[in-house]
Amino acid sequence: NNAIDSDDSLAGQDIIVTAGGTKEPIDPVRYIGNRSSGKMGIALAKSAANKGGNVTLITTVKNAELSSNIKVVQVDSAEEMLTELQARFAKTNVLVMAAAISDFKPVHVSDQKIKKNDNQETYTIELTKNPDILKTVAKDKKEQFVVGFAAETQNLLANAEKKLISKNADVILANDVSQSDAGFNVDTNRITLLSKSSDPQKWELMTKQQVADKFWDYYVALKK
Ligand code: CTP
Ligand code: CA
Hints:
Helix content: 25-40%
Function: Catalyzes two sequential steps in the biosynthesis of coenzyme A. In the first step cysteine is conjugated to 4'-phosphopantothenate to form 4-phosphopantothenoylcysteine. In the second step the latter compound is decarboxylated to form 4'-phosphopantotheine.
CATH class: Alpha Beta
Protein name: Coenzyme A biosynthesis bifunctional protein CoaBC
Distance between the termini: 26 Å
Catalytic activity: (R)-4'-phosphopantothenate + L-cysteine + CTP = N-[(R)-4-phosphopantothenoyl]-L-cysteine + CMP + diphosphate + H(+); N-[(R)-4-phosphopantothenoyl]-L-cysteine + H(+) = (R)-4'-phosphopantetheine + CO2
Keywords: Decarboxylase, Flavoprotein, FMN, Ligase, Lyase, Magnesium, Metal-binding, Multifunctional enzyme
CATH architecture: 3-Layer(aba) Sandwich
Structural class: alpha/beta
Mean pLDDT: 95
Bound molecules: cytidine-5'-triphosphate, calcium ion
Shape: globular
Strand order of the largest sheet: 5-4-1-6-9-10-12-13
Pathway: Cofactor biosynthesis; coenzyme A biosynthesis; CoA from (R)-pantothenate: step 2/5; Cofactor biosynthesis; coenzyme A biosynthesis; CoA from (R)-pantothenate: step 3/5
Number of domains: 1
Number of strands: 14
Low-confidence stretches: none
Protein backbone atom coordinates (compact mmCIF):
# COMPACT_ATOMS: atom_id res chain seq x y z
CA ASN A 1 0.00 0.00 0.00
CA ASN A 2 1.55 3.24 -1.22
CA ALA A 3 -0.07 5.47 1.40
CA ILE A 4 1.44 3.52 4.29
CA ASP A 5 4.96 3.70 2.86
CA SER A 6 4.90 7.43 2.16
CA ASP A 7 7.26 9.72 4.05
CA ASP A 8 9.37 12.75 3.19
CA SER A 9 12.85 11.24 3.37
CA LEU A 10 13.60 12.27 -0.26
CA ALA A 11 12.14 15.79 0.00
CA GLY A 12 14.19 18.31 -1.98
CA GLN A 13 15.89 15.61 -4.08
CA ASP A 14 15.70 15.84 -7.88
CA ILE A 15 15.62 12.25 -9.13
CA ILE A 16 15.71 10.83 -12.66
CA VAL A 17 14.80 7.20 -13.27
CA THR A 18 14.95 5.54 -16.69
CA ALA A 19 12.70 2.57 -17.41
CA GLY A 20 11.84 0.04 -20.09
CA GLY A 21 13.50 -1.50 -23.09
CA THR A 22 14.58 0.78 -25.91
CA LYS A 23 13.12 0.38 -29.40
CA GLU A 24 15.66 0.80 -32.19
CA PRO A 25 14.00 1.65 -35.51
CA ILE A 26 14.48 -0.51 -38.61
CA ASP A 27 11.85 1.16 -40.82
CA PRO A 28 8.59 3.09 -40.18
CA VAL A 29 6.80 0.00 -38.85
CA ARG A 30 9.55 -2.14 -37.27
CA TYR A 31 12.07 -1.99 -34.48
CA ILE A 32 14.55 -4.07 -32.49
CA GLY A 33 13.49 -4.40 -28.88
CA ASN A 34 13.91 -6.54 -25.78
CA ARG A 35 11.74 -8.21 -23.15
CA SER A 36 12.11 -5.59 -20.42
CA SER A 37 8.76 -4.72 -18.85
CA GLY A 38 9.97 -1.50 -17.23
CA LYS A 39 8.58 -2.71 -13.89
CA MET A 40 11.78 -2.16 -11.90
CA GLY A 41 12.19 1.44 -13.08
CA ILE A 42 8.52 2.23 -12.54
CA ALA A 43 8.70 0.79 -9.01
CA LEU A 44 11.78 2.95 -8.30
CA ALA A 45 10.02 6.07 -9.59
CA LYS A 46 6.84 5.42 -7.56
CA SER A 47 8.78 4.62 -4.41
CA ALA A 48 10.89 7.79 -4.70
CA ALA A 49 7.78 9.92 -5.28
CA ASN A 50 6.13 8.34 -2.21
CA LYS A 51 9.14 9.42 -0.21
CA GLY A 52 8.75 13.03 -1.35
CA GLY A 53 11.31 13.06 -4.17
CA ASN A 54 10.90 15.27 -7.24
CA VAL A 55 10.84 12.47 -9.81
CA THR A 56 11.26 12.50 -13.58
CA LEU A 57 10.73 9.15 -15.32
CA ILE A 58 12.30 8.82 -18.78
CA THR A 59 10.54 5.77 -20.13
CA THR A 60 9.75 3.67 -23.19
CA VAL A 61 6.71 2.16 -21.43
CA LYS A 62 3.39 3.53 -22.69
CA ASN A 63 0.33 3.98 -20.45
CA ALA A 64 1.98 2.86 -17.22
CA GLU A 65 -0.05 3.52 -14.07
CA LEU A 66 1.84 6.25 -12.26
CA SER A 67 1.11 8.73 -9.52
CA SER A 68 0.39 12.26 -10.79
CA ASN A 69 3.43 13.70 -9.00
CA ILE A 70 5.84 11.87 -11.37
CA LYS A 71 6.97 13.80 -14.46
CA VAL A 72 6.96 11.48 -17.46
CA VAL A 73 9.19 11.87 -20.53
CA GLN A 74 8.29 9.39 -23.25
CA VAL A 75 11.04 8.05 -25.55
CA ASP A 76 11.60 5.08 -27.85
CA SER A 77 15.27 4.72 -28.83
CA ALA A 78 18.50 4.88 -26.85
CA GLU A 79 19.49 8.05 -28.76
CA GLU A 80 16.28 9.76 -27.63
CA MET A 81 16.80 8.60 -24.06
CA LEU A 82 20.36 9.99 -24.06
CA THR A 83 19.17 13.36 -25.43
CA GLU A 84 16.42 13.72 -22.82
CA LEU A 85 18.77 12.68 -20.03
CA GLN A 86 21.54 15.07 -21.10
CA ALA A 87 19.02 17.94 -21.03
CA ARG A 88 18.34 17.21 -17.33
CA PHE A 89 21.39 15.52 -15.81
CA ALA A 90 23.28 18.64 -14.69
CA LYS A 91 20.56 19.67 -12.24
CA THR A 92 19.66 16.25 -10.87
CA ASN A 93 20.73 14.78 -7.52
CA VAL A 94 20.23 11.12 -8.35
CA LEU A 95 20.10 9.14 -11.59
CA VAL A 96 18.93 5.52 -11.59
CA MET A 97 19.45 3.77 -14.94
CA ALA A 98 16.93 0.94 -14.77
CA ALA A 99 16.24 0.99 -18.52
CA ALA A 100 17.29 -1.95 -20.68
CA ILE A 101 19.19 -0.15 -23.41
CA SER A 102 19.65 -2.05 -26.65
CA ASP A 103 23.40 -2.54 -27.00
CA PHE A 104 23.08 -2.25 -30.78
CA LYS A 105 20.90 -0.45 -33.32
CA PRO A 106 20.48 -0.78 -37.09
CA VAL A 107 23.13 1.07 -39.12
CA HIS A 108 20.53 2.18 -41.66
CA VAL A 109 16.94 3.16 -40.91
CA SER A 110 14.77 2.83 -44.01
CA ASP A 111 12.40 5.73 -44.82
CA GLN A 112 9.99 3.29 -46.40
CA LYS A 113 8.63 -0.03 -45.17
CA ILE A 114 11.10 -2.71 -46.24
CA LYS A 115 9.58 -5.11 -48.81
CA LYS A 116 10.42 -8.79 -48.99
CA ASN A 117 11.23 -10.11 -52.45
CA ASP A 118 10.80 -13.44 -54.17
CA ASN A 119 14.45 -14.24 -54.88
CA GLN A 120 15.79 -13.54 -51.38
CA GLU A 121 15.33 -16.13 -48.60
CA THR A 122 17.43 -14.41 -45.95
CA TYR A 123 17.65 -10.82 -44.82
CA THR A 124 20.50 -9.27 -42.90
CA ILE A 125 20.32 -6.16 -40.73
CA GLU A 126 23.68 -4.62 -39.94
CA LEU A 127 23.93 -3.29 -36.40
CA THR A 128 26.16 -0.72 -34.79
CA LYS A 129 26.79 -0.01 -31.11
CA ASN A 130 24.49 2.34 -29.25
CA PRO A 131 26.10 4.95 -27.01
CA ASP A 132 26.54 3.76 -23.42
CA ILE A 133 24.13 6.23 -21.83
CA LEU A 134 25.25 5.67 -18.26
CA LYS A 135 28.93 5.94 -19.13
CA THR A 136 28.38 9.03 -21.28
CA VAL A 137 26.54 11.07 -18.63
CA ALA A 138 28.45 9.79 -15.56
CA LYS A 139 31.90 10.33 -17.12
CA ASP A 140 32.18 13.90 -15.88
CA LYS A 141 29.60 13.89 -13.14
CA LYS A 142 29.91 16.27 -10.21
CA GLU A 143 27.71 15.79 -7.13
CA GLN A 144 25.22 13.49 -8.85
CA PHE A 145 24.67 10.07 -7.26
CA VAL A 146 24.57 7.60 -10.13
CA VAL A 147 23.08 4.11 -9.98
CA GLY A 148 23.27 1.45 -12.66
CA PHE A 149 21.92 -2.04 -12.97
CA ALA A 150 23.78 -5.11 -14.15
CA ALA A 151 21.82 -8.06 -15.47
CA GLU A 152 24.07 -11.12 -15.26
CA THR A 153 23.66 -14.85 -15.80
CA GLN A 154 27.19 -15.71 -14.61
CA ASN A 155 30.12 -14.23 -12.63
CA LEU A 156 27.71 -11.72 -11.06
CA LEU A 157 30.12 -10.01 -8.68
CA ALA A 158 33.06 -9.74 -11.06
CA ASN A 159 30.95 -8.47 -13.96
CA ALA A 160 29.05 -6.00 -11.79
CA GLU A 161 32.28 -4.73 -10.20
CA LYS A 162 33.64 -4.00 -13.71
CA LYS A 163 30.50 -2.01 -14.54
CA LEU A 164 30.77 -0.06 -11.27
CA ILE A 165 34.25 1.11 -12.28
CA SER A 166 33.94 1.47 -16.06
CA LYS A 167 30.67 3.42 -15.88
CA ASN A 168 31.81 5.67 -13.00
CA ALA A 169 28.70 4.69 -11.00
CA ASP A 170 28.28 5.09 -7.23
CA VAL A 171 26.17 1.95 -6.95
CA ILE A 172 25.46 -1.03 -9.17
CA LEU A 173 22.36 -3.09 -8.43
CA ALA A 174 23.47 -6.45 -9.78
CA ASN A 175 20.58 -8.65 -10.78
CA ASP A 176 21.07 -12.42 -10.91
CA VAL A 177 18.93 -13.37 -13.91
CA SER A 178 20.21 -16.95 -14.10
CA GLN A 179 16.90 -18.22 -12.64
CA SER A 180 13.44 -17.51 -14.01
CA ASP A 181 12.20 -15.85 -10.79
CA ALA A 182 14.31 -12.75 -11.31
CA GLY A 183 14.81 -10.16 -14.01
CA PHE A 184 12.93 -9.69 -17.25
CA ASN A 185 9.13 -9.68 -17.16
CA VAL A 186 8.65 -11.04 -13.63
CA ASP A 187 7.69 -9.23 -10.43
CA THR A 188 10.72 -10.29 -8.37
CA ASN A 189 14.48 -9.67 -8.44
CA ARG A 190 17.62 -11.12 -6.82
CA ILE A 191 19.80 -8.12 -6.11
CA THR A 192 23.33 -7.67 -4.84
CA LEU A 193 24.20 -4.04 -4.14
CA LEU A 194 27.77 -3.06 -5.00
CA SER A 195 29.29 0.28 -4.09
CA LYS A 196 32.76 1.79 -4.04
CA SER A 197 32.44 2.58 -0.32
CA SER A 198 31.48 -0.80 1.19
CA ASP A 199 31.32 -4.58 0.72
CA PRO A 200 28.62 -6.10 -1.54
CA GLN A 201 25.22 -6.57 0.11
CA LYS A 202 23.29 -9.62 -1.03
CA TRP A 203 19.53 -9.10 -0.75
CA GLU A 204 17.06 -11.97 -0.59
CA LEU A 205 14.55 -12.62 -3.42
CA MET A 206 12.01 -9.82 -3.18
CA THR A 207 9.41 -7.98 -5.24
CA LYS A 208 10.53 -5.10 -7.43
CA GLN A 209 8.55 -2.76 -5.17
CA GLN A 210 10.49 -4.07 -2.14
CA VAL A 211 13.78 -3.66 -4.02
CA ALA A 212 12.81 -0.07 -4.83
CA ASP A 213 11.90 0.79 -1.23
CA LYS A 214 15.04 -0.90 0.11
CA PHE A 215 17.24 0.96 -2.37
CA TRP A 216 15.82 4.39 -1.42
CA ASP A 217 16.17 3.54 2.28
CA TYR A 218 19.83 2.67 1.59
CA TYR A 219 20.34 5.99 -0.25
CA VAL A 220 18.66 8.07 2.49
CA ALA A 221 20.74 6.37 5.22
CA LEU A 222 23.96 6.92 3.19
CA LYS A 223 23.27 10.64 2.70
CA LYS A 224 22.41 11.30 6.37
N1 CTP B 1 23.44 0.98 -20.12
C1 CTP B 1 23.45 2.22 -20.72
N2 CTP B 1 23.68 2.33 -22.07
C2 CTP B 1 23.90 1.22 -22.82
C3 CTP B 1 23.93 -0.06 -22.19
C4 CTP B 1 23.68 -0.13 -20.83
O1 CTP B 1 23.26 3.23 -20.04
N3 CTP B 1 24.12 1.35 -24.11
C5 CTP B 1 23.22 0.91 -18.66
C6 CTP B 1 22.00 0.11 -18.24
O2 CTP B 1 20.86 0.93 -18.12
C7 CTP B 1 22.42 -0.45 -16.88
C8 CTP B 1 23.93 -0.60 -17.01
O3 CTP B 1 24.33 0.24 -18.10
O4 CTP B 1 22.15 0.47 -15.84
C9 CTP B 1 24.40 -1.99 -17.29
O5 CTP B 1 23.71 -2.55 -18.39
P1 CTP B 1 24.06 -4.00 -18.87
O6 CTP B 1 23.27 -4.32 -20.10
O7 CTP B 1 23.99 -4.94 -17.69
O8 CTP B 1 25.62 -3.84 -19.19
P2 CTP B 1 26.40 -3.47 -20.52
O9 CTP B 1 27.37 -2.40 -20.15
O10 CTP B 1 25.48 -3.18 -21.65
O11 CTP B 1 27.25 -4.78 -20.80
P3 CTP B 1 26.72 -6.25 -21.25
O12 CTP B 1 25.29 -6.13 -21.75
O13 CTP B 1 27.67 -6.66 -22.31
O14 CTP B 1 26.81 -7.10 -20.00
CA1 CA C 1 23.77 -4.53 -22.31
